[in-house]
């Protein structure tokens, strides 16, 4: 149960009511006071004071002063009239309750309205501020544009002027040229002297109208040109300078940002060449160098050159077991098989080499040509001439300028036609 | 970097934009005139040369010349002011010199290279410098050849690979050091980042270096003086300025480098009227105007007492983006300070005016 505060004192004038409410030691804040048109409540737990006012008041303008242990209310009456008492005397419970509820509702509505009004006002202000800034910026931009326009126009005018001067300059030059032509008949020295005299006089006249930079330049250069031609050194003795370029693997231009990627690719390529199929138990018997496919390839090449075809095949076989991704091994083994007349094996190896030589780039052109030629030869020796011709033609496509391939292709064509006629 | 601030900075004003119906690879001012030349390749794979004249706020087409092969580059550097013949390199490796008044038959023609001529430069003409007029061409076949228009068919100097097979594309060439009749150097940049300096008097390689990115453009600040500065631009937005006054026997030339933007820097061109200002054009369609400042001392002694150069510093005066496509060619007018023309791969050629260069 709240403690009712009843020791209030009040006095009134025609338009206002002054109410003084002592607080028994409690401290009041604005939140504790609730006031509406006809209802006044001060609630400071556990104290409570409420009054249903005699007549409506203007609650927006009324004030409450908190201080010195009491609250001093200044309530402005809506209708100036003297009140019989501060509160309504015969207020029953229900009426009081209704009044209270209404008061609360009204207060809430008011609060809502106030916030709405505030929001709208804020937006208005923002808009205004924005428009103002936009205007200022526009003005700035326009000022700069104007400056630029002025510059542009000034500069365009200057240019016109300069251009016209150039045109005049050209005209005079052409006149002088014509004068030159008239005097071509006389001997050289006399011609020069006369030119000097004649062109000096019109030159003085023209120098004023020309740009400073071309003053006198035109005429002086006309005959100085002739003098110069006699003084020009003879053409240089032809020579060649040999140039060494910083090595670069890729055909594309060097870019700093790609260097890292390129290095990685080259590294990978190098790695791929060194992979060893390591589950070969015989590897332990071999010497270190015999495990290197490149070394074995070289060995094979040497033996082929010396005519030891079987030995070469052995070397290549071992190399292939170590690394079956190197196209050159198959290519060279195919050549060996051709010499040994193992034609089917030659065809197999050339095919395998061609498979490995994809993608077809200028780098592996030569290798592909060889592969096609070897396979073609094998086919022909097996008397499968059409297949052989196909390979030769493929080789020609890659390298159209090779005469040997051309001749062989021709021979095969004749052979085919010969066999077709006879069969 | 010192700063030239605010309204005092040079402005790049785009004066005229001209849309073309072909891809323009090179644009050049005709010396002593308000005319410019555009060289390129039509969609059909034929060459086009167009001669324009400045006419108020637009370009007036004076002449259009068609050639069987697309043209990649051209220069007026080796002709006299009277003749103003244009030397061009085309996609087939032919070097031709044309008289623009009578362009049907070239004045000089040679099939100089087996592949496209990427870059051409001329020296000894236009009343600048001394010595014989010469043209140098750099090609995708890896060779750099120097031609004299008075000698047919064979080059007067040929810089080719020593190792037979191996070759790198030569992307750019430039003449320099032509301060008297005998001295001359050719600088060549390759796609693997090599820059080589060939001395034509001694017929040897004078200096070489590698800047780790393909070299798109090299230019000396002046062709007709003792070598002073060399700017080399490359892929990946970098360019290097070499101080060419002092050559150290092992360290070569001192340099300062700058990374201007993320894309390739296609061209560098020095202002003819001020050799410390140059413009670089980029793959993102932008132009940057730079100024080089010399250091307090241009050379110093290293630990062994040998002279070595000291590089200066660069400051960016202005930058502007004109296009979405790379600006592949750039040329300053030798007659009007600040007037320049640039051609971009969006098939437009633009005439620009750079203001306030007097105040730099």
TrEMBL record, chain A:
Residues 194-222 are annotated as: Disordered. The keyword Nucleus applies. InterPro entries: CS_dom, CS_DYX1C1, Dynein_assembly_factor_4, HSP20-like_chaperone, TPR-like_helical_dom_sf, TPR_rpt. GO terms for biological process: determination of left/right symmetry; epithelial cilium movement involved in extracellular fluid movement; heart development; inner dynein arm assembly; nervous system development; outer dynein arm assembly. Residues 3-87 form the CS domain. One of its GO terms (cellular component) is nucleus. TPR repeats lie at residues 369-402. One of its GO terms (molecular function) is nuclear estrogen receptor binding. It comes from the Eukaryota. Keywords: Cell projection, Coiled coil, Cytoplasm, Neurogenesis, Nucleus, Repeat, TPR repeat. The keyword Oxidoreductase does not apply. Residues 198-208 have a biased composition (Polar residues). Residues 93-154 form a coiled coil. It is found in: Cell projection, Neuron projection; Dynein axonemal particle; Nucleus. This is Dynein axonemal assembly factor 4. The gene is Dnaaf4.
Automatic annotation (TrEMBL), chain B:
PROSITE patterns: WD_REPEATS_2. Transmembrane segments: none annotated. Key assembly factor specifically required for the stability of axonemal dynein heavy chains in cytoplasm. This is Dynein axonemal assembly factor 10. One of its GO terms (cellular component) is dynein axonemal particle. It holds the Pfam family WD40. GO terms for biological process: apoptotic process. The gene is Wdr92. It comes from Peucedramus taeniatus (Olive warbler). It is found in: Dynein axonemal particle. Keywords: Apoptosis, Cytoplasm, Repeat, WD repeat. WD repeats lie at residues 135-157.
């Amino acid at each position: 149960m709240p403690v009712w505060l009843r020791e209030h004192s009040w006095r009134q004038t025609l338009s206002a009511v002054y109410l003084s409410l002592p607080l028994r030691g409690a401290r009041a804040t604005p939140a504790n006071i609730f006031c509406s048109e006809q209802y006044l409540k001060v609630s400071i737990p556990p104290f409570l004071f409420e009054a249903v006012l005699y007549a409506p008041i203007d609650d927006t303008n009324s004030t409450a002063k908190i201080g010195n242990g009491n609250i001093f209310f200044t309530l402005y009456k809506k209708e100036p009239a003297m009140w019989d008492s501060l509160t309504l005397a015969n207020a029953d419970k229900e009426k009081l309750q209704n009044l209270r509820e209404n008061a609360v509702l009204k207060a809430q509505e008011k609060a809502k309205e106030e916030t709405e009004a505030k929001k709208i006002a804020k937006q208005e202000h923002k808009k205004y501020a924005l428009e103002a800034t936009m205007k200022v910026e526009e003005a700035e931009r326009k000022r700069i544009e104007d400056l630029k326009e002025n510059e542009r126009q000034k500069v365009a005018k200057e240019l016109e002027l300069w251009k016209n001067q150039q045109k005049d300059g050209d005209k005079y030059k052409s006149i002088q040229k014509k004068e030159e032509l008239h005097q071509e008949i006389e001997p050289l020295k006399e011609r020069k002297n006369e030119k000097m005299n004649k062109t000096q006089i019109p030159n003085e006249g023209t120098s004023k109208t020309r740009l400073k930079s071309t003053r006198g330049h035109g005429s002086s250069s006309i005959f100085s040109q002739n003098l110069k031609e006699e003084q020009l050194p003879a053409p240089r003795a032809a020579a060649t300078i040999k140039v060494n370029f910083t090595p670069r693997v890729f055909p594309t231009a060097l870019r700093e940002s790609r260097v890292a990627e390129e290095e990685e690719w080259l590294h990978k390529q190098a790695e791929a060449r060194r992979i060893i199929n390591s589950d070969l138990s015989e590897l332990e018997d071999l010497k270190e160098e015999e495990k290197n496919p490149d070394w074995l390839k070289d060995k094979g090449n040497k033996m082929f050159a010396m005519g030891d075809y079987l030995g070469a095949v052995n070397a290549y076989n071992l190399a292939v077991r170590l690394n079956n991704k190197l196209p050159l091994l198959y290519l060279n083994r195919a050549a060996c098989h051709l010499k040994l007349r193992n034609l089917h094996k030659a065809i197999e190896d050339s095919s395998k080499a061609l498979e490995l030589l994809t993608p077809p780039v200028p780098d592996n052109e030569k290798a592909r040509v060889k592969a096609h030629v070897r396979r073609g030869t094998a086919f022909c020796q097996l008397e499968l001439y059409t297949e052989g011709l196909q390979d030769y033609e493929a080789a020609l496509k890659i390298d159209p300028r090779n005469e040997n391939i051309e001749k062989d292709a021709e021979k095969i064509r004749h052979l085919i036609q010969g066999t077709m006629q006879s069969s | 970097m010192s700063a030239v601030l605010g309204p005092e900075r040079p402005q790049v004003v785009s004066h005229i934009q001209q849309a073309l119906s072909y891809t323009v690879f090179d644009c050049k001012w005709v010396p002593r005139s308000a005319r410019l030349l555009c060289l390129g390749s039509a969609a059909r794979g034929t060459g086009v040369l167009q001669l324009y004249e400045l006419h108020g706020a637009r370009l007036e087409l004076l002449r259009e010349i068609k050639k069987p092969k697309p043209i990649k580059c051209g220069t007026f550097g080796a002709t006299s002011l009277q003749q103003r013949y244009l030397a061009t390199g085309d996609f087939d490796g032919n070097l031709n010199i044309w008289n623009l008044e009578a362009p049907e038959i070239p004045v000089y023609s040679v099939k100089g290279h087996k592949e496209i001529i990427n870059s051409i430069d001329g020296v000894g003409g236009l009343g600048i410098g001394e010595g014989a007029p010469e043209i140098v061409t750099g090609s995708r076949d890896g060779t750099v050849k120097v031609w004299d228009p008075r000698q047919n068919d064979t080059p007067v100097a040929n810089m080719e690979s020593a190792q037979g097979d191996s070759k790198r594309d030569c992307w750019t060439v430039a003449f320099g050091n032509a301060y008297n009749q005998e001295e001359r150097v050719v600088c060549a940049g390759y796609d693997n980042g090599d820059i080589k300096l060939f001395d034509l008097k001694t017929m040897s390689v004078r200096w070489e270096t590698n800047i780790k990115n393909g070299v798109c453009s090299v230019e000396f600040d002046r062709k007709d003086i003792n070598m002073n500065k060399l700017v080399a631009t490359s892929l990946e937005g970098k360019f290097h300025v070499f101080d060419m006054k002092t050559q150290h026997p092992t360290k070569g030339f001192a340099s300062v480098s700058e990374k201007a933007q993320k894309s390739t820097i296609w061209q560098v061109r020095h202002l003819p009227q001020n050799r410390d200002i140059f413009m670089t054009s980029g793959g993102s369609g932008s132009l940057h105007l730079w100024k080089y400042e010399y250091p307090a001392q241009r050379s110093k002694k290293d630990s062994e007492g040998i002279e070595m150069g000291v590089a200066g510093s660069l400051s960016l005066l202005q930058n502007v983006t004109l296009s979405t496509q790379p600006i592949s060619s750039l040329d300053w007018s030798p007659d009007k300070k600040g007037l320049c023309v640039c051609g971009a791969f969006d098939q437009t050629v633009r005439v620009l005016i750079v203001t306030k260069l007097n105040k730099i």
